[in-house]
Design goal:
8 helices; 9 strands; alpha+beta; BirA Bifunctional Protein, domain 2; 6-stranded antiparallel β-sheet
Length: 228
């Protein structure tokens, strides 16, 4: 769906938009150019029931769980970040979320290049992809995950096995439940309210296109293991 909506904005078929989405299974999500062998502890993923997948944007590996992760995606014409450096664009495109979390009593701030953090550690990480004059910026927040599983699943700090691909950085994760008793749905609603703008539906053709991409590209071994 990220690729479909990014292409729609690039083609002028949609204006700038924001999508909130949930996870239906445990997933370890690689950045587009990361090595599976460098990043994934296959034994831990199997034991804990995590599926390894790969997104279209760059950045490091993310741990995602149903009910434990809050994710949003922004789709924008590139002109909306014109004049900003790559690093500055991350700050600008997550500033509204940092402010909204602060309004909920969460001590959130921005840390370059692409993190939303608390004084105790990382709350969220962002990644981007750009094509044909449009920008995808998506952010994954830890709502209720167990921080201890992160270094089990991701080979953070362990020897590099493949020369190619960026490695995930070693960062302490602090889920939102450390700072708020609000349910995941309430946090999502507060963020949606802060973003503003009218709600719009995903069209049938967009949903069909996303399903085709999921089947023909994103679920295939050729994509997931494109960098072994």
């Amino acid at each position: 769906m990220d690729e479909v909506l990014l292409d729609a904005v690039a083609a002028g078929a949609r204006g700038p938009c924001l999508r909130f989405w949930r996870w239906t299974e445990r997933a370890l999500v690689l950045g587009s150019h990361q090595s599976v062998r460098n990043e994934v502890d296959a034994e831990a993923c199997f034991a804990l029931g995590f599926r390894v997948v790969r997104r279209m944007s760059g950045g490091g590996t993310m741990v995602c769980e149903p009910g434990g992760t809050l994710t949003y995606s922004l789709y924008l014409p590139e002109g909306m970040v014109r004049g900003l450096s790559f690093v500055e664009s991350f700050r600008a495109l997550d500033a509204w979320a940092v402010a909204a979390l602060g309004g909920l009593g969460v001590p959130a701030s921005y840390r370059p290049i692409n993190d939303i953090v608390s004084p105790a550690g990382k709350i969220a990480g962002a990644a981007q992809a750009r094509r044909r004059g449009a920008v995808l910026h998506h952010t994954t927040m830890a709502y209720a995950i167990d921080p201890a599983i992160v270094p089990r699943l991701i080979r953070i700090g362990r020897p590099t096995l493949e020369a190619r691909g960026p490695r995930s950085a070693e960062k302490v994760v602090t889920p939102l439940t450390l700072f708020t008793s609000l349910a995941l749905e309430e946090v999502e609603a507060a963020l949606a309210s802060a973003a503003g703008g009218p709600a719009a539906e995903i069209s049938r053709s967009e949903l069909d296109a996303a399903r085709d991409l999921a089947k023909g590209k994103y679920s295939t071994p050729e994509w997931v293991s494109r960098f072994p």
